[in-house]
């Protein structure tokens, strides 16, 4: 799948260059990253080709692209969101929100409606396809996209473990939005770093030109050390998700690498008690730029650090988000 998307990406950029017909050509790499990420996530999770690399600009692709900036405009509401979620059923919360005289809120609602309608159409289509295969006893030929697998798993689950179609649609929309934005952002950052470091870009080009295959598999992609190092270093310095939230499932005591605070008796704390149900926010960006872990050049883009044994502090710290493997495979395939 990634091979096909990579070829379409290259063809699209080449077509744009030819259409401009000038010596100095301007190519919006972020736009192409957005298109390639959406097509990849659409095929992988929905089994649906949005064809954005082919020039199709649907209302859905536009809604996905504009959703994150629209959400940022509502950042002031973030602290009260957990409370809002507890106010009545979804239809009641929607009725309240639609009455708020805010242009930003109305924009977000409009974008959400477009995404929900598209997801619902694809979801219903998948259900009809599976139903037809079940009737003809041909389930073995079903697609292996996330929607199909989710429907099959939900049908086999016990009653107590089944989830509603509304929940499945919510999971699907979240997967598409989160997967698209993080992947396109990661790709854009990688290309930006290469543009700012032409010597490293030259070395990477020399490395990739040695590839004997037109459509290399994952094992071949992993055999290019500089390509792998560039992706890891970019994800370290510019993680697609800068902060993650987790809720502790049980009481736990977390040891601190560096003692902090001093009590009345002059003793510093070496651990932190976290009760069950506590919301914990982890800053991946801060952890990935900590000089204690990465050394004095922690804030610099240096992919060559990955070509040597990593500092002991990196292995000992078990820093979250360093590898961000969910984005590495896609980035390797699309860059090559």
TrEMBL record:
Top-rank taxon: Eukaryota
Cofactor: heme
Assigned keywords, A-Z: Heme, Iron, Metal-binding, Monooxygenase, Oxidoreductase
InterPro entries: Cyt_P450 (IPR001128), Cyt_P450_E_grp-I (IPR002401), Cyt_P450_sf (IPR036396), Cytochrome_P450_monoxygenase (IPR050121)
Sample GO molecular function, one term: heme binding
Coiled-coil annotated spans: none
Keyword Transcription: no
Pathway(s) served: Secondary metabolite biosynthesis
KW Nucleotidyltransferase (keyword) present: no
Family: Belongs to the cytochrome P450 family.
Name under which the protein is recorded: Cytochrome P450 family protein
Species for this entry: Rhizoctonia solani 123E
Organism ancestry: Eukaryota, Fungi, Dikarya, Basidiomycota, Agaricomycotina
